[in-house]
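From the methods appendix. Each design record in this collection lists the tokenized structure first, followed by the designed amino acid sequence. Records were kept in a plain field format so they could be parsed without special tools. The example shown here is representative of the layout used throughout.

RECORD:
FOLD TOKENS (576 positions):
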């Protein structure tokens, strides 16, 4: 049988078997020499990056299976959004399939880590499944082996997700604030795996258009590309991205280039009491270029060790706008117009561990990453690169997870800072832990807690919780500051998975508690207890639900704007 083509033998197509640390900062000036050096380093980095990029072939197998039988061919069985037997008697399903372009076989084939002439390996098959799910194109993916005419075949079965997605994600806060995104997204243009979106965005403090184009593989190469334009009422943001990423644990090298241009306003909030929310406005101008190259001395389906180097050039200015009656004494001073560069190195070690789950964050299947991971990085902010004084930026990220009987346990600790001759210039520490217990297939209980501390963060990046961040029944900016803690206990019962092949429905209950404050303020905490009705689509490739919440608020010093103890909110459900 020919190894690269669809086999002549037929396979039944029956029912399917069910990111970067905050930028480091300090007080900077912009000597001319720093600007010249920074630009020179950027050009050198762009020229040098392709020279260090080389892609290794996937391992020849044997790491996850003792079988030595060689794969003869690849059998790809693709299914449309709605099953053929269901669409035959339903005009709506037929219309849906007609409007949707089924994912092309070559889109599936290029993500596989096994192929003709290689031994079958269960670890590489499982990773191929994850790679395909990560594309966000499929409702179901299975990769395993089968026999066709007595020969071993890699059996790949996919069912497409609905790709033309209207976007109506309105969220209603307890104080009546309506936010959301409204538009359309096509995540699989003509079955090519490329995506575009056109959204109108309404946030708490701004509104406007969000436009994006994404190519998972640019012109069928290993390159990925992305371009985004945010044209909002208080800012104009362009962002672009080009990379040849680590697409598999066995990949040996990668490079990434990111660019961003920001022009607009940033609000910074200070709440001295429940009825006193002050807003300080900053004008920000920034252009950022970041180039990263990495290699992996250890790269296999069980374990990876990667090292890389980063070159970053930033042209940035923060200008504070004075507001009568606002006390600015405790806030950072204006950041002058400056051009400066950063040179960084990082190392990552990971022992791979994943769990495929359903009815977790939503109705769709998803991969929970429970890998043991250590990430450490260092960045040099040198006076010769435009800084007023030399400093060292550090970051340490630790995360791990386990399956313990019916429970999935996860934890992460992330911290970093910029140190100079005067000591700590700015920094942060944030930790979170999650336990999810699956009592039955349709009932999951989540417990999650987190806490964090910031020192002299960038304006507008302080902890700002309430509404979309716990506690969910409080209004926007209910709790702000550089110290935070929050926790939730939530139970979800998934009642109906697939009502008319269109949506699923569930109910739950929750208790949230948390707050945020500045170090010169008393600790302010509040909570809520309530019930929720949630829904989601089984046609989606993304696991998340939409909630309607109602409940009772307590603590926090209810102010005039939040006088009622009873409240409700609607919006996207929490992801654990």
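DESIGN:
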């Amino acid at each position: 049988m020919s190894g690269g083509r669809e086999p002549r033998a037929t396979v039944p197509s029956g029912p399917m078997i069910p990111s970067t640390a905050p930028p480091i900062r300090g007080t900077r000036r912009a000597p001319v020499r720093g600007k010249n050096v920074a630009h020179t380093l950027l050009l050198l980095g762009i020229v040098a990056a392709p020279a260090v990029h080389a892609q290794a072939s996937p391992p020849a197998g044997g790491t996850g299976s003792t079988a030595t039988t060689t794969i003869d061919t690849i059998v790809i069985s693709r299914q449309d959004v709605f099953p053929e037997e269901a669409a035959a008697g339903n005009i709506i399903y037929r219309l849906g399939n007609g409007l949707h372009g089924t994912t092309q076989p070559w889109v599936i084939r290029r993500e596989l880590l096994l192929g003709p002439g290689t031994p079958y390996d269960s670890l590489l098959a499982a990773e191929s499944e994850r790679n395909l799910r990560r594309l966000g194109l499929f409702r179901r993916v299975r990769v395993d082996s089968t026999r066709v005419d007595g020969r071993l075949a890699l059996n790949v079965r996919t069912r497409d997700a609905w790709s033309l997605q209207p976007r109506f994600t309105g969220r209603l806060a307890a104080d009546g604030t309506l936010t959301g995104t409204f538009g359309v997204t096509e995540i699989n243009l003509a079955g090519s795996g490329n995506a575009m979106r056109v959204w109108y965005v309404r946030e708490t403090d701004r509104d406007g258009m969000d436009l994006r184009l994404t190519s998972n593989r640019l012109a069928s190469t290993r390159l990925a590309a992305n371009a985004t334009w945010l044209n909002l009422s208080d800012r104009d943001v362009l962002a672009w991205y080009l990379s040849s990423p680590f697409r598999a644990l066995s990949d040996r090298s990668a490079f990434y280039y990111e660019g961003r241009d920001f022009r607009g306003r940033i609000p910074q909030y200070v709440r001295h009491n429940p009825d006193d929310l002050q807003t300080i406005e900053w004008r920000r101008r920034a252009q950022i270029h970041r180039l990263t190259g990495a290699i992996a001395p250890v790269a296999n389906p069980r374990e990876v060790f990667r090292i890389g180097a980063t070159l970053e050039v930033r042209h940035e200015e923060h200008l504070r706008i004075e507001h009568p009656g606002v006390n600015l004494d405790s806030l950072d001073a204006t950041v002058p117009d400056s051009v400066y560069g950063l040179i960084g190195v990082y190392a990552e070690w990971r022992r791979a561990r994943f769990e495929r789950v359903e009815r977790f964050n939503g109705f769709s299947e998803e991969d929970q990453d429970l890998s043991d991971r250590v990430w450490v990085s260092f960045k040099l902010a040198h006076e010769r690169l435009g800084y007023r004084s030399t400093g060292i930026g550090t970051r340490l990220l630790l995360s791990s997870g386990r399956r313990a009987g019916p429970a999935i346990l996860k934890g992460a600790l992330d911290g970093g800072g910029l140190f100079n001759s005067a000591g700590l210039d700015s920094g942060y520490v944030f930790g979170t832990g999650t336990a999810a217990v699956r009592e039955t297939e349709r009932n999951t209980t989540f417990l999650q807690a987190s806490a964090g501390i910031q020192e002299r963060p960038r304006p507008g990046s302080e902890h700002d919780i309430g509404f979309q961040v716990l506690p969910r029944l409080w209004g926007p900016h209910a709790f702000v500051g550089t110290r935070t803690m929050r926790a939730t206990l939530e139970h979800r019962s998934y009642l109906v998975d697939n009502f008319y092949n269109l949506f699923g429905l569930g109910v739950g209950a929750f208790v949230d508690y948390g707050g945020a404050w500045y170090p010169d303020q008393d600790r302010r905490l509040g909570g809520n207890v309530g019930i929720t009705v949630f829904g989601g689509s089984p046609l989606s490739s993304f696991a998340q639900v939409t909630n309607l919440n109602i409940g009772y608020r307590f603590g926090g010093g209810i102010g005039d704007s939040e006088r009622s103890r009873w409240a409700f909110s609607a919006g996207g459900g929490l992801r654990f």
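APPENDIX NOTE: The domain at 32-56+162-572 is CATH 2.40.160 (Porin).
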